[in-house]
C-alpha cells in the first residue's frame, strides 16, 4: 500500500505530464520546415499562387506542432499546443490577404509612379497612351474628402456628445435607432437619395460637392459610434470634479470630456474617412467623371481616385490597367498619410500627464 502511495502514476497526475518538453525553437523550426515543404508541394503540383503555398504551409505547421507535441509531451499538452497553433494560423490567415494586397499593389503600381503621372491629367490621352496621369482625380479626392470631413465630423461628434451626456430621454433612443440604421445603408442608396433630393428636386448641378453630401451620409454614423465609445471611456470622476467646482456642464464637456477623449475621437474620424475615401458608386452618380483638372468642387463634374481606378481598369488596355494599379497605390498611400496625420494630431492634443 505504501509503495502505491509513494509512486504516483500517470493517471494520478491530472495533467498527464510526461516530464519531457519540446525545445523552445521547435515552433520556429516547424514553421521553416512547413514553408519549405509547402514550396516543394506548390512547385511540384504547379500551383502558381503563392497564397496557396501559404495555406499549405499553415496546415502543415499546425499538424506538425500537434504530432510533435503528442509524441514528446503527451496528449494533454498537445491539445494546448494545437490551440496555440490555431491562434497563430488564424492570425496568419488574417494578415496574409493584407500582405498579398500590398504586395500586388506596390509591385504593379510602382511601375507607373513618376512626376508626369502625379502632375498631369487624362485630358486628350488615349487608352493606349502612357502619358496621362491622375492629378485631376487626386485633386477631386482631396477636395471631396475635405468637404466631407468639414460636414460630417462636427455633426457626428455633437450627436455622440448628445447621446452620451444628455441621452436619458426618448429622443436619444430615436437618434440611436437611426444611427444604427444608417450604419448599414449601402453607399448606392445614399447616392440615390442625394441624387433625388439635391439634383432632381432642387435642380442642382453634378459637382464634387454633391458627391461629398453622399459621403457625409455614409461617414456620420461611423463618427457617431466611434466618438460615443470614446466618450463613455472618460471616467465620471473627471466630470464630477469639474461640476463640483461650479463649472457648467457644457464647459465641462468642452474643456474636460472632449480633450480627454480627443485621441480616440480623431482616430474614429480617420477610420470613417478611410471608409468613404474608397467609395465609387456615389461619385459615379453625383459627380460624374472628368478627364480635365477641376479645382472647384462647386462647379462642373469632377473625378476622384476610386472612379479613376474603375475607369482605367475597365478600358482593358495594358497602359490603362497599369494606370489603375498606380491609382490604387496612390489611394492606399493617401489613406495611410491621413492616418499618420490623425495620430500626430491625437498625440498633440491629448492632455499631458502631470509629473
Give the integer mean of the pLDDT values: 85
Assembly classification: single chain
Categorize the overall geometry.
Answer: flat
Number of helices: 14
Rg (C-alpha, Å) = 28 Å
Structural class: mainly alpha
What is the string of helix and strand elements?
HHHHHHHHHHHHHH
Could you give a short account of the major beta sheet? none
Compute the separation of the termini in Å. 66 Å
Structure in a nutshell:
Helix content is 73%, strand content 0%. It contains 14 helices and no strands.
Explain the layout of strands and helices.
Blueprint: H1 2-6, H2 26-44, H3 50-72, H4 75-109, H5 115-119, H6 135-165, H7 170-183, H8 187-201, H9 208-232, H10 236-244, H11 249-277, H12 281-286, H13 305-315, H14 318-349
Helix pairs in contact: 2-3, 3-4, 4-14, 6-9, 6-11, 6-13, 7-9, 8-9, 9-11, 10-11, 11-14, 13-14
How would you sum up this structure, described in words?
The protein has 355 residues and is an all-alpha fold. Helices cover 73% and strands 0% of the residues. It is built from 14 helices and no strands. Helix 7 (170-183) packs across helix 9 (208-232) and helix 10 packs antiparallel against helix 11. The radius of gyration is 28 Å and the shape is flat. It starts with a helix and ends in a 6-residue tail after the last helix.
